[in-house]
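Inputs:
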Amino acid sequence: MSTFGNYFRVTTYGESHCRSVGCIVDGCPPGMQLTEEDVQTQLTRRRPGQSAITTPRNEQDTVEIQSGTEFGVTLGTPIGMRVMNKDQRPKDYGSSTMDLYPRPSHADWTYLEKYGVKASSGGGRSSARETIGRVAAGAIAEKYLRLAHGVEIVAFVSSVGNQFLFPPTPEHPTASTNPEFLKLISDITREQVDAPEFFPVRCPSKEATGRMKKLVEDFRDRKDSIGGTVTCVIRNVPSGLGEPCFDKLEAILAHAMLSIPATKAFEIGSGFGGCQVPGSIHNDPFIKAGAAPNGSEKTSGFPKPRLTTKTNNSGGIQGGISNGAPIYFNIGFKPPATIGQAQTTSTYDEEEGILEAKGRHDPCVVPRAVPIVECMAALVIMDAVMAQHARQSARSLLPPLKATRPAGETIPLLAE
Amino acid sequence: MSTFGNYFRVTTYGESHCRSVGCIVDGCPPGMQLTEEDVQTQLTRRRPGQSAITTPRNEQDTVEIQSGTEFGVTLGTPIGMRVMNKDQRPKDYGSSTMDLYPRPSHADWTYLEKYGVKASSGGGRSSARETIGRVAAGAIAEKYLRLAHGVEIVAFVSSVGNQFLFPPTPEHPTASTNPEFLKLISDITREQVDAPEFFPVRCPSKEATGRMKKLVEDFRDRKDSIGGTVTCVIRNVPSGLGEPCFDKLEAILAHAMLSIPATKAFEIGSGFGGCQVPGSIHNDPFIKAGAAPNGSEKTSGFPKPRLTTKTNNSGGIQGGISNGAPIYFNIGFKPPATIGQAQTTSTYDEEEGILEAKGRHDPCVVPRAVPIVECMAALVIMDAVMAQHARQSARSLLPPLKATRPAGETIPLLAE
Amino acid sequence: MSTFGNYFRVTTYGESHCRSVGCIVDGCPPGMQLTEEDVQTQLTRRRPGQSAITTPRNEQDTVEIQSGTEFGVTLGTPIGMRVMNKDQRPKDYGSSTMDLYPRPSHADWTYLEKYGVKASSGGGRSSARETIGRVAAGAIAEKYLRLAHGVEIVAFVSSVGNQFLFPPTPEHPTASTNPEFLKLISDITREQVDAPEFFPVRCPSKEATGRMKKLVEDFRDRKDSIGGTVTCVIRNVPSGLGEPCFDKLEAILAHAMLSIPATKAFEIGSGFGGCQVPGSIHNDPFIKAGAAPNGSEKTSGFPKPRLTTKTNNSGGIQGGISNGAPIYFNIGFKPPATIGQAQTTSTYDEEEGILEAKGRHDPCVVPRAVPIVECMAALVIMDAVMAQHARQSARSLLPPLKATRPAGETIPLLAE
Amino acid sequence: MSTFGNYFRVTTYGESHCRSVGCIVDGCPPGMQLTEEDVQTQLTRRRPGQSAITTPRNEQDTVEIQSGTEFGVTLGTPIGMRVMNKDQRPKDYGSSTMDLYPRPSHADWTYLEKYGVKASSGGGRSSARETIGRVAAGAIAEKYLRLAHGVEIVAFVSSVGNQFLFPPTPEHPTASTNPEFLKLISDITREQVDAPEFFPVRCPSKEATGRMKKLVEDFRDRKDSIGGTVTCVIRNVPSGLGEPCFDKLEAILAHAMLSIPATKAFEIGSGFGGCQVPGSIHNDPFIKAGAAPNGSEKTSGFPKPRLTTKTNNSGGIQGGISNGAPIYFNIGFKPPATIGQAQTTSTYDEEEGILEAKGRHDPCVVPRAVPIVECMAALVIMDAVMAQHARQSARSLLPPLKATRPAGETIPLLAE
């Protein structure tokens, strides 16, 4: 369905050619300063037309808050948000070649199979435009997490095609054992990712950006497309988040990330490469937290866990629950389905023919996917924070028992 | 939480040392023949102690149905199921070395951080024993899917450490472009996977089984552990399943798979390797369904989609919705955290020390993970089938419109 | 939260002084004709300022569909809807006497206790204006139910203060045993309720309307207010709806109705009065359906239940499941909290004082509540229909068993 | 479905003739002392066979905790509970007269319509036996609420047939304006309700108990049955509970209560009678909390609201949110459907005939309903407490703003 989250819950609407796209955010904590500026920043980073290697359509994507705030402060009631569509006229169906063919590997065919309605925009709700609602919602979640817990969420492009920031090697089948990678994710900021030297790829290495940019341009010039991966790190996450057994934190992250259009793969921490690492190396030994080398500096007032891990192959999650170390994961994006090259395929009416997509299309989506990944990560963490708040507050009111740890030692319970 | 699914909904309970483990299945269609035999088969395949390379504890794991059936037929009411624990006595906490240390990369520490209670079994609910409830529920879902739609779900081991069934190559960075792989997943049966020649690895290649078995034995002998991957294929899935935008079919599969203990990664169709394949090759052209080379033979009476795809890099899902082609995916399992080797780590009380785990532990979990993966896959497909049934039945009662496809052409709506 | 329903799911947003109010409807069946006209009718019936006995503010309340339809047909994707607020400027807080006082029996105080934010509109989300979103969503549900199942939903005012349409008597402590009442609910139409002779009370008896109108005018003139009851009947409901044990159909109806502002009470069928009727009279004997005296004429093609009941003290629901007979229920609305009379109460700052509400307020809400009740009823039935569709479609694909009834004999499974 | 609650979530299973009935409680706060004794008390109060006016079958109903506790302390993981059925053999269907007839006003017919399966116990899941799971779960919730917030929940019988504890009068059309009633609900304890002098009716007035007992005996002797009402009060509820707009606290209470078998009506506070009371009298003026005449003594350490109300026609809830005053409500129970008298009705096969139910049946269910009502009330309040905990904890970590109230002034946020 179009709802994500239980306690901080976003519901989105809208497809390419309707009046507007938007969302309702339910469950936002009251008393937080919030204006449209807070949301616009990520919408602007998501926007198409930012460079020659992304789609050149120039959509404005200006958000209007409809409800849920007053004098710039959240009321605790649902926050409605809306972004107008520029091209609201559904096109006259059947007028062009593209209307005869379901685009290969696109959602045109499956939307028709599912809903039985042949809409002008094919699988219109599968459009990247749908992601506006979730980005807007995620921007609110992220603001809360930053204010309340100092959480930092940074995503970047880690590969395009066969060009990697950290290519797998026999020594490091997974970047999680590579100190350089760990250093990067402990430091990287969003400002760095957006720095001109990494433009427009958003890969935080000038050298790799060069290789990747070149590759995308090659594919663009051939009217072809190519995939890539985005890596995301979340720092300063409170320990104790995640709701086993079915709602383990990595399970919800995977759910969130694979709901982003064009995604095919997700890995947390050591990921697939970690399957090749012996347990004796893969295990993250515990150490006293003070000496934490990948030390997440907490900016809010709640107690840090007393232990941390020396290595972080777990990616900050163990047994489905955050341990306070940086959470990081990779998402694989397939090559965009809409390409200018001629493709032999079938019409809706089972006739073989040749489809050549008109217009300009993203030859590679990963740069624009960066803010979408960050916003989905924020939604996941926000919901998990609220679930754990409910548990911990409830627990803190019980008479203390010998067999348990004081509630105050785990998650924050600060009365002002 | 401990609930999975909306229409076909399973809720599980139980940890290692309590009285029993089990589940409640709510929403099972009424009127289906169901006895404990139907459930026991997969529980027995999941059981530890099946071979020298899996953990030698011999648990019986006999299921008892508590409710929801009468004279061997489902009533449509909740089905309670229970499996007794053999060792129900929580051990005397603090009596052994292992109790002083949270096991590295295990859930002991994070469970304490989350719940604040130091249980005798550490992160007891993170135990593989928790999976009994979901396997039992999945076995019911699978029976329904087989009876009603001819759905076939088969999982197998596709790698152990660096030993692969289909190693990535420059030509085939993903197995999805490899005809041999596509042939295998279109044919493979559960009986083949369990054949003596592939015992105990469950990798459907005698040669690869040999390599993998050797590798696991090496790790076992070194008191170390190693990870691996499981590949799963689901054949004869009706088209139109999956609930965009947040509940795309691959997103729910990812959620389900990453809720299985010890998983770190998930990829659908071409997966991470597909990021390296040009769009012009990666796209799956449509062809008339009759000629489908990866032809899924439907055994139930509902209409096959009129189109299918020539290739299947999509893994049977496009735009988050099934297209009728085989759905396949890989799951990465990390090396088991509990190893016999000495590890330098910290006690709960922040003292550095050396932990040597006692007892015998699985050096590699992937063979036993096979039925768990299958059962989670069944739960996902079952829930998606019921959601689409609700939509299609509702739609079929509306007056027909020109712009839409007849409801009867898509999903089954067969009155008897 | 602000979401209602599982399969046909509405999420609302908006309070009195924000930019707009509205909703997202997720799960609407695709392929249904739908335009803004379909929704506007009920919004207009709900609007204030319709008569001298309701509040004279004249709000336009024009709905704009944002998404989910194309060329007037539903796509199956979320339907966004929006109604602008006329007065979008939050008032300058603290400028008037009313701002010093939480209004007695209003939501001002509890909203502050809950959210901690003192909004300009006090408990702004508790305003009747919030109901716009649910009425818009309910209008869509109702259209579907009428088209697909011939469902008819009609609500009317059954009492104002101590003036009753069917006053309880020793013979009929509940109207459910009164043949006149049963006749009325088997026939009454929305057009009749809105007829000029019953204006503006919406009580389908000229005589009772006169008594009620007089009473409301008395209370209005005294700057006081008075409560009343609304009775609602739903005809042609398929049998088999309702999801025991917790989601019995009457439980969901009660939930829906008591979520309407100012409601205090709900009764289904014989209700509280039925507690005084002996079981031997209260029981509804079964008879062959053809002879059904309270005969619901089905207009769609699905099989009527073979049995119906001779009487209908059950109100069409038995064991939490609809039996095909008319469903009817009463809802009690308290006197509006905002009155012009001086009230001795306390300020937010615990000072005793006298509050006199300015402006004109509804002296009685029941006439305007009629469309709100109808729309909530539609949301409940729609969701229950889809849940039962999912079950029945799933069941219809199983091999038939002797112990069960053919699926086709119960709920509709019509392929076109 | 069979699940109730979001944060504190109970899922039940079981019908009359299966192996056992039970439930899984998910989300219970960790670190609470809990043994089977805590649960057994309410199960025993619910048990049939307690007196000559309730059904004489003597079921033991001994609960076994399966999981979720260790050494008598909750782990925070799901708590499985089970009560064996004494008569587990489904009877040989069709052997008796009763099997030919769906019992009038019972669930036999609608269960068949819904599920299509003719079970030996008819609408077996609609049996009072189903309530065991919810009573067990509610007992846990209640223990938490008592320990953490000093919440007291007491239900009692307030009418049987036309015999009332507080009959409606012209002066007091609702008991909510009657000082005697308000005094009773501010004081009444569960021990008093169970006192020998009120046995077996559970109406806290010797005189009324006499009248009611006599009435039930009359109906029993005539092989007839009669309904009644239960009143429930919840004291010491924190202010701020309830989740508008759809999940107002009274809406969830109504949902919970109307999910109890045999219920037909619900009213909160002044209820239906309040519709007849002028707003000027019905409104509850605010007063400084110290002087609260219906003073709820809080036993836990969180701040009392600064204001309370002089009267309590609202029943402790305003705008869907608790205000700290006692919450009270009535539930109407219909006369039991199974009676010994001969009834002319129809067989399943549409033949008219005469049904005479065998065996002994409850002539009136209200005395046994008392603990069921209390337990459902506990489930509602528990879930609302956790939702508000999540919000308040989240809010307490935000930088303070002028426009808002300090988080610490509202709901408890006590670190130990």
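Chain D has one domain: 3-395. Flag for discussion at group meeting.
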